[in-house]
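Lab notebook page, bench 4
Experiment: in silico fold of construct C2
Operator: M.H.
Input chain length: 212 residues
Purpose: comparison with the prior construct
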Amino acid sequence: MARVLIIGASKGIGLETVQRALAAGHTVRAFARTPVRLVGADTSRLEVVKGNALKTEDVEAALDRVDVVIQTLGIGLGDMLGPVQLFSKSTRVLLPAMEAKRVRRLIAVTGFGAGDSKSSISFLQYIPFRLVFGRAYDDKDIQEKLIKASSLDWTIARPGILTNGHRLGTYRVLTEPQDWHNGTISRADVADFLVQQITDRSHVRKTPVLVY
């Protein structure tokens, strides 16, 4: 079992990942700016750390005695109306901190449409995608470039359209560019994939798209 730091652990994919990692038997350090509230989970192996992913001292402290980092930061729709820099700035803090602490395994969440998966967006989806998510995904592009340029053992997960559905375990992991396409997937199933990557190294230095 691993000691896992989950960044952005208070809601969404991050909160689902905390619960899934605990269920899988790992020891979890949940890092967030707001309290982490779990329902029905065994918290005996959970440490909640309040911190800012943009502050080097907070991130370095959270990395102490950690084996794996799962980066699950997200923003609300309202935050997409202005400039978005959270993903790139937090990654610029995280990568050198991981190097300094000699933590090699990084599992990060971006999304379908980030990096080279952008060319797989259909013509009909591209304009609304850019109008709503353009600023965020421009920053996710930078985030992915930073991660790929690092020497870490990284995996970048690119989920499709997120839902609040249950974990089904029937999602597809699309690793080849010719197979990439958009679709839906629950946050719980994204968390399932992320937790599997703690011990599964078959997707190291890969950027799989996750959809049903």
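Observations: The domain at 3-211 is CATH 3.40.50.720 (Rossmann fold). The radius of gyration is 16 Å.
Next step: discuss at group meeting.
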